[in-house]
Amino acid sequence: MEIDKSKQYEIIVFPNQDEGLKAQRVLVTKNIDYKHISTLAVAVSEKYRQEICRILIDNGVPITGYYKFLYRDYEEDLLNRAQAYKASPSEGEFLKTITLCYVAPCMADEKKIRLIAYFDRDITELLPYLNAVIKGASYNKNASILTYAKERRLINLYSIKVTIAKASDIIDAWMILDEVKKLINDTYRRRDTIKPNYEEKVKVTALQIYGWLPKTNCRACGDATCLAFACRLLLGEQKLSKCAPLSTESKFSENKKIMQEMAEALGVA
Ligand code: SF4
User: Fold this and answer.
1) CB 117 within 8 Å of CB 64
2) Partner of 110 for a Cys bridge, out of 83, 90, 105, 221, CB 3.0 to 4.6 A?
3) Could you give the CA distance from residue 190 to residue 63 in angstroms, rounded to a whole number?
4) 217 CB less than 6 Å from ligand 1?
5) Do residue 219 and residue 141 come from a single domain?
6) 42 three-class SS
7) For 61-83, what is each residue's pLDDT tens digit?
8) Is 259 in the pocket of ligand 1 (CB under 6 A)?
9) Which domain holds residue 221?
10) One domain, residues 184 and 113
11) CATH number of the domain enclosing 76
12) How many domains does the chain have?
């Protein structure tokens, strides 16, 4: 399929290469037009995406998710990066596979994507070691969650899964997942030389966010109070830019800077 820039497309993502290849066989057999992105993803017309997903599912192909193929993605860059992407080998390693099980646009920014992927084994015992090696990570021992930011992306490591918010696109997501796998395997290999860190860093709370807001309850953001806005921002259901006084009034410029950094780390900017 040739990409027509006047039309809308969506990218459908598959959990692994076997399922991706199976999907492309079904698409060819059914004579369905699609653009090959890689063995893990295809682009299809937005108009027919729902119908195509149904056909794939009816033919036994599991789908991880889909998101809008944006104009910027039509540039050769995405296709080149997709071709160049190669998962690192994991033979004999602690963690062999990370299976991508959910992909969707970010709630706070639909130009970015969020995802959930599952490990092939439990990494709970390794979390304190990862807490020791990842700079600025936040560890919640009781819930077995390690949170850290990589540039604008927010990464949460759980016992058996990883969630990522604000990945730029599916190639970015695959590369981050590969980095996560390498980091876990490298930490496992070196665990005898690492002192595990059980320290739990203080997390950002809704009240802290509230403290940086204008606290006028003006409702310009659509929420009844600044505290409600803070809670919803923390949940990824609000955008920082929706607070008009914070965005436009110079007296809040310092607060805005702090909030922007915090929101970017949380993936809700
Ligand atoms: S727009 Fe900002 S100042 Fe107004 S209620 Fe919402 S969070 Fe508070």
Assistant:
1) no
2) 105
3) 36
4) yes
5) no
6) strand
7) 999 999 888 766 666 677 788 88
8) no
9) 206-266
10) yes
11) 3.30.70
12) 3
